[in-house]
Amino acid sequence: MRYAVSLLYLLVIIGTATLPAPARAGEGSWEYVGGRGGINATGKGALREYEGFVAYLLPWGLGEHGGWRLNTKANGSMGMLQGSGRYGFIATMGPGLSLESPGVPLELDGGVNLAFISQDVYDGRDLNGNLQFVTHIGLNLRVAGPIGVGYRFHHMSNADLNGRQNPGVNMHLFSVIWYFDK
């Protein structure tokens, strides 16, 4: 299964690296692509998540000149959840915001994603449905040229949409990021 995750990361990186850049500034652009993995934050069970991800900068933002900038973006990911010998597919997509300042290699990142999971029971914990919502907040640090690392805390739950139990899962995720030139 480890090779499948590595192959997924490679496909996401190759696929997004071949996409054309926008013709003019302000039309949006690919911001970064990468891989991340992590563990259940509550210590209940051994749930793990591994995924490839991409972020697309949207043309709308605040604070264009000199100071801090609030960016809008579209986020997407595909990967797997693993716990107690069970494996399942996860795919997410949704809007995000990031706060950054020119010349500072640190970015505050947050967002809300709609998620689909192929299995909804891990470690004896029933997530009650294949449709989930993921909210996240994290920090990304550009460390050398186009290479960055990141930390993300995310919460996944069914938002009580099905009227049944809504246990939710909190995760600590760590990222390796490849930034496209801005």
TrEMBL record:
Q: Per its record, how is this protein called by name?
A: Acyloxyacyl hydrolase
Top-level division of the source organism's lineage: Bacteria
Does the keyword section mention Ribosomal protein?
no
Q: Which InterPro entries match?
A: Lipid-A_deacylase-rel
Q: What keywords is this UniProt entry annotated with?
A: Hydrolase, Signal
Pfam families according to UniProt: PagL
In its UniProt record, a GO molecular function of this protein is: hydrolase activity
Tell me the first and last residues of the signal peptide: 1-25
